[in-house]
Write a structure and sequence with these properties.
Radius of gyration: 25 Å
Oligomer: single chain
Mean pLDDT: 86
Low-confidence stretches: none
Number of helices: 5
Length: 329
């Protein structure tokens, strides 16, 4: 860590410049609970004025930051133009204008963020052109799925951000025009007013991840419409459902780390053929809940599956093996 300061004074005003450089800082060792390293950081501020308050309020400069994590295949590069906000002689905010965040060569986010002091409350807007999570996130075995979630949630600072992704890819599926509001506070992370469109339909949803009783609890609720089965499957099943589907999706999970959260997840689908202006009864209606099982297995509990003249209830278990093992009751 290197710090440099310089000052000049004339008959009418004074000038101040500050510079901070850091390298190879382990954020987790600093007590942030963030499994990341600050590979490099450069902050330069300079200002002029006829008194200390004027100098502080005129401070501006440049910020360049590099971050790396074992969870990410690419390093994060951040740059911004920082400026100081003053009120009654007290520093009240740090603004990051012309904010530019890059992950490798393909992902770039731009916008502005204001950080309120001393609470470190962040507000602002960010627009991301394209984000491919398949290439960004390392396999689960390398990401440390045993990272405790409750300390991470309890260490969250107040956040209120408007985010937009023009394009996002996950599990080889691309969705577009994603808009969401991200809010956070100590112990809770929440996404509200979220929506997206894709080749397989559109959705409006909200979700939260909160610490409660030494556990992290995940809740996601979504309404979907225009789901085209033909875009989801290359099998003959796509020819059996001609109308698009609409309905709701709910996800519930709890656990102390990401691994437990996944193992305890419950995903419920309630879908039916969209009416399309017709009063005729739907030819397809399904209510099913999915859950993972130990041993790389998945279970589906079918409350109701109405398809044409068939009405099915029961349980299906699939084990991901070669060849796959399928059981139905």
């Amino acid at each position: 860590i290197k710090v440099a300061a310089a000052g000049q004074r004339s008959a009418t005003e004074a000038a101040l410049s500050l510079q901070l450089d850091m390298a190879n800082v382990d954020l987790e060792q600093l007590g942030t609970e963030l499994p990341a390293r600050m590979t490099s950081a450069h902050l330069m501020l300079a200002g002029r004025g006829d008194n200390p308050r004027a100098i502080a309020s005129n401070l501006t400069g440049e910020l360049v930051l590099g971050l790396a994590s074992d969870s990410l295949a690419e390093d994060i590069q951040l740059s911004a133009t920082p400026s100081i906000g003053m009120s009654a002689g007290t520093v009240t905010s740090l603004s990051l204008n012309d904010l530019d965040i890059r992950l490798g060569d393909a992902t770039r986010s731009q916008g502005q963020v204001q950080i309120g002091l001393p609470q470190l409350a962040a507000t602002g807007q960010l627009i991301t052109s394209s984000l491919n999570l398949d290439s960004l996130l390392l396999p689960t075995s390398s990401t440390g799925s045993s990272i405790a979630l409750v300390p991470l949630l309890q260490g969250l600072m107040p956040v209120d951000l408007e985010l937009r992704f023009n394009e996002l890819t996950l599990n080889e599926q691309t969705i577009t025009d994603i808009n969401l509001s991200l809010q956070a506070d100590a112990g809770r992370l929440e996404i509200i007013d979220a929506g997206f469109t894709s080749q397989f339909g559109s959705a409006q949803w909200r979700g939260s991840l909160a610490a409660a009783n030494a556990m992290a609890r995940l809740q996601v609720d979504a309404s979907v419409e225009g789901i085209e089965v033909a875009s989801l499957s290359d099998s003959q099943i796509k020819d059996l459902l001609e109308k698009p589907l609409a309905g709701t999706i709910t996800l519930r999970a709890q656990g102390g780390d990401w691994g437990e959260l996944y193992q305890n997840a419950r995903l419920r689908l309630r879908l039916a053929e969209a009416p399309g202006g017709s009063s005729a009864p739907s030819d397809f209606d399904v209510d099913v809940e999915f859950r993972p099982l130990p041993g790389d297995q998945f279970q589906a509990d079918i409350t109701d599956l109405y398809w044409g003249e068939s009405d099915i209830r029961g349980r299906v278990t699939l084990r991901n093996a070669q060849p796959p093992v399928f059981n139905a009751d």
